[in-house]
TrEMBL record:
Keywords: Hydrolase. Residues 132-159 are annotated as: Disordered. This is Indoleacetamide hydrolase. GO terms for cellular component: endomembrane system. It comes from the Bacteria. It comes from Hypericibacter terrae. Residues 28-453 form the Amidase domain. It holds the Pfam family Amidase. Transmembrane segments: none annotated. The keyword Hydrolase applies. One of its GO terms (molecular function) is hydrolase activity.
């Protein structure tokens, strides 16, 4: 099989073939590395090329298989790791010149879990400064481009991951999400992801000097971005494997108990004070019909306290960020990043003092109301981005730019605040004045039921198709 075909294959197909001996891990990784070196100069998605060490590991996997060593579920699958997570021997830069020499001494749990499953890391992907923008640009590594075109953002903060996987640079991409950083890049690039729920994927950076703030711990999760939904299903059991370094990890199996009868799905187009683009509305209609035809019972129902939870959650996060991260942002962030943070503080006035503690405590109130709602509706179909993908660096354009990119993302950071899992899947290839662009919807699920979300995403993908097929046919 030619290298051209290998780098285009899904993680599921590659794992099946390498485990069966139909193709070597070395050939698979060589194809991915070749693709990375061919297209990454235009995209700047990967900022650390690990192709040489990846080839060495691939040869080791082939030799181990030949000796009869059991293969993992991701045997030989090329993956990328975001530069804000520790990988032994490499800098955890987090997009900051000040951290360019911050070499990690050990792997983070997500890196260990992927490699134990047989995955091969071919590169490290870009992120904005402090990984705190829905855009991917920084003074150390530069700006990442969207493979759909330079006229649209790749999203953030895992924009390097989203652009890489959709361009065929690895079959899976690691990312993380504190307010939308898995889902923004998935939506912007036409990929699929599921933001795991709180405690689902073990997390910790061995290089960190202090524990993160309580809200950062509660809202930030690790995950993967893929080209196809079945690749999420393949990889999720591996990434949720326990690690004792995360004392709050929830060691539940990937698949939960079955639900009697057809699954009820709440459906909403409510966007409060924000406009919903007609093409995004059409994507929601398509997703609704796909779920209905697949046997789900979809009912219009407004989720509880969504707007309030979103506002409270992000203002509380900003309160913690300003107190704990603020001095570092001022000292090590660029002038541009500090201007963006000033706008964050204006649009999301940080809580302070006793009010900050009260609003952090109120998180349980919102989560409880949603828990009751999800007891009736195990899944909720919602918008994600309310408009088609924004142009690059839109969040640098003052109040209007920040409002479009982040202010309107109420269906994003609200889920982080409540710790709920949420998937993002394309539901329409829109023909817009700026060209064809994928548009995604969000599916929220019961706590620790990522499996239900993935199943529903697959029903939508079966109707709409895989966006990477459209993108790669156009050529890069």
């Amino acid at each position: 099989m030619s290298d051209l075909l290998l780098w285009r294959l899904s993680a599921s197909d590659l794992a099946r073939m390498t485990r069966a001996g139909e193709v070597s891990a070395e050939a698979v990784v060589a194809a991915a590395v070749g693709r990375m070196r061919a297209v990454n100069p235009r995209l700047n998605a990967v900022v650390k090329d690990l192709g040489d060490s990846a080839m060495e590991r691939a040869r080791g996997l082939d030799a181990a298989r030949a000796r009869g060593v059991a293969t993992g579920p991701l045997h030989g699958v090329p993956v990328t790791i975001k530069v804000n997570v520790d990988q032994a021997g490499h800098a955890t830069t987090n997009g900051l010149p000040a951290l360019k020499d911050a070499i990690a001494s050990a792997d983070a749990p997500i890196v260990d879990n992927l490699q134990r499953a047989g995955a091969v890391v071919i590169g490290r992907t870009n992120t904005p400064e402090f990984s705190f923008r829905a855009e991917t640009d920084n003074p150390l590594h530069g700006r990442t481009s969207n493979p759909w075109g330079d006229h649209v953002s790749p999203g953030g903060s895992s924009g390097g991951a989203g652009a890489a996987v959709m361009a065929g640079i690895g079959a899976l991409a690691h990312g993380n999400d504190i307010g939308g950083s898995l889902r923004f890049p998935a939506a912007a690039n036409g990929a699929v992801t599921v933001k795991p729920g709180l405690g689902r994927v073990p997390a910790w950076n061995p290089s960190q000097k202090a524990e993160r703030g309580m809200l950062a711990q509660a809202m930030s999760v690790q995950g993967v971005i893929a080209r196809t939904v079945r690749d999420l299903r393949l990889s999720m059991p591996a990434v949720i494997s326990p690690d004792p370094r995360d004392p709050f990890h929830v060691p539940l199996p990937y698949e939960g108990p079955s639900i009697d009868g057809p699954i009820r799905v709440a459906f909403t187009k409510e966007t409060y004070e924000f406009d919903l683009h007609p093409e995004v509305s059409a994507a929601l209609d398509t997703a609704r019909q796909a779920l209905t035809d697949a046997g789900y019972v979809v009912e219009e129902s407004e989720p509880p306290l969504l707007r309030e939870a979103a506002s409270t959650g992000f203002r509380a996060l900003m309160g913690e960020v300003r107190l704990l991260m603020g001095p570092d942002v001022r000292a090590h962030g660029s002038e541009l990043l500090n201007a963006i943070f000033d706008e964050y503080y204006r649009q999301f006035p940080p809580f302070e003092g006793a009010e900050q503690l009260q609003m952090m405590a109120k998180r349980s109130h919102y989560a409880r109301q949603w828990s009751l709602f999800l007891d009736k509706y195990p899944l909720v179909l919602t918008p994600f981005m309310l408009q088609p993908t924004y142009r690059p660096l839109r969040d640098t354009e003052g109040a209007e730019g920040v409002r479009e990119v982040l202010g309107s993302a109420i269906y994003s950071y609200s889920m982080n605040f409540m710790g709920l899992p949420a998937g993002c899947v394309p539901a329409r290839l829109a023909r817009l004045p700026q060209g064809e662009l994928p548009l995604s919807v969000q599916i929220v699920g019961r706590r620790w039921r990522e499996d239900l979300i993935v199943n529903a995403c697959e029903a939508i993908e079966a109707r709409v198709g895989v966006m990477a097929d459209h993108l790669l046919r156009r050529g890069l």
